[in-house]
Write a structure and sequence with these properties.
The complex is a heterodimer of chains A (118) and B (161). Helix content of chain A is 63%, strand content 5%. Chain A has six helices and two strands. In chain A, helix 1 runs antiparallel to helix 4. Chain A starts with 8 loop residues before the first helix and ends with a helix. Chain B is an alpha+beta fold. Chain B has four helices and nine strands, in the order βββααββββββαα. In chain B, helix 3 crosses helix 4. The chains are: A mainly alpha (118), B alpha+beta (161). Chains A and B meet through helix 1, helix 2, helix 5 and helix 6 of A and strand 2, strand 3, helix 1, helix 2 and helix 3 of B.
Amino acid sequence: MRVDQLPGLDAALAALADPTRRALLARLSRGEATVQDLARPFAISQPAISHHLKVLEEAGLIETRVQGSARPRRLRPAAIAALWDGLGALRRDMEARHSRLDAVLDEMKAEEEFRDDH
Amino acid sequence: MIIDPVSKEPHTLLVAEGRSSLTFTRRFAHPPARVLRAHLEPAAVRRWIGSDSHPMQDCRIDGRPGGSFRYVWSGENGFAASGEFEEITDRRIVHVERFDPDWTGGDARVITDFDPDGAGGTLLRMQVIYASAEARASVGASGMAEGMEGAFDRLEALLAA
């Protein structure tokens, strides 16, 4: 089976590639919210936010709850859990950071030894 | 749940502990005092927390309990982090941090321990406690977006197995 044949994955990756949509997910991680609530911190129109929410919903990352005339959006915990794999990327970022720290520590050591000798 | 690397020593290990925290561990061939100092001196910090793709253009650290810090990364998608130190001892730094734009679901509390490894080196243990389980999950989702290419690699390996 090829990666591009996996249902849903492409949509989820494409949805997450956009910074506004990641910010919307981050906001929803603090609890459900209406389109009006979600649009407030952004300098873009409500229809544009609605479009981003539609992309996230089609990717299966969020869902709409019907509450009278209100339509709050919320995260789909199962879908988010499936994205745990993203932690592998965090680990690699931290590993790269720690490799740079190794080099910085070596230089700090050399400087300390130089100071001690002079 | 342990995200274990497959290759090269020394490596950074990531463990998802409890409901809302992530813990990174790494061994360094330098004593705790030096490793801790590299976390508080701007000249050192900007070189390892900044990178070629995201250079740190501003790094201010008041490395005392109650002191604050601010990091600014330049580049196409510039971002910043700021926070306050709650505790600084010879073996531990506790601080609160937040990013702008926010991608960690609000303030995260970070406990970094610098323990002797018994061979002259340091075992670094950094626990990041997010505001909620959902915040931690969304950090994972962001990581996936940032590391999309790597995610594809791993998935292909998984499917080939």
